[in-house]
Design brief:
The protein has a domain of 92 residues. It has one helix and 14 strands. The strands form four sheets. It has a six-stranded mixed β-sheet with strand order 7-9-11-13-14-12, with no helix packed on it. A four-stranded antiparallel β-sheet has the order 2-1-3-4, with no helix packed on it. The longest helix has 55 residues. The radius of gyration is 59 Å and the shape is rod-shaped.
Length: 257
Amino acid sequence: MAAKSDPQRRPVFYDLRNGRFLADPAIGSSYYPIPALTSGDAAIDLINTATSSVIAAARVVAASTTAAGVVRLSSAVDSASESTAATSQAVKTAYDLADSAGTAAASAVSTANLALSDASAAQATANTAIGDASAAQSTANAALPLAGGTMTGQLVLQEIKEKVYTLPASGSIALDPASGSVQGSVLTGAPTFTDSLEEGQSIVLMLEGGNSYVVTWPSVTWAGSGGNSAPTLTTKDVLIFWKVSTTLYGAYVGTYA
């Protein structure tokens, strides 16, 4: 028996178990002065009043995680409810969010891989630089120090420029190659030369005024046609000195203008 104002003439239901009429849930109670059929927890037996057919043993119960039943649809994507079911809209929203998150994650992975590649390239460059620096250090360690050292191989030089040093004019005068390999003195008084040579060192001495003052030499083994004797000096003389072991040798070269 549907209400006259209901154009679709939807039926009401009679609850045999509880003895009550219930309206079709599609129209609620707006057309009938009776409650609408809901998904309540109570089990009911219904008769369709429009057809008088009995809906045998129908159970209208709320669905749960352990039992089947009527469930309410929801479009929420942030609900933790276990008594509602997701609509297509909720599923699509969740899918879109997941897809967006997946795209962002893929972009982040790509950026991270690029950064990792750059870091790997930087590490390779750094390793190369370390290798080059190590090789340069090895070369530097093997090089002759500026302060001097011992060379064991053959040395080929296209040109050598020796240092020229001016000695004092009188008094104690050291013959020291560290001052220069070519040394000279214009005497103004009697000189006393001392030996500061090491084995293997030599100097060239240019001396002026040697014939005007008494010249005192260190212990020298003289080499020359006159035997082991000091030369007779003139106005300007050239002499050379060198040391072998602990012996200082000297030789008179000659005069110069």
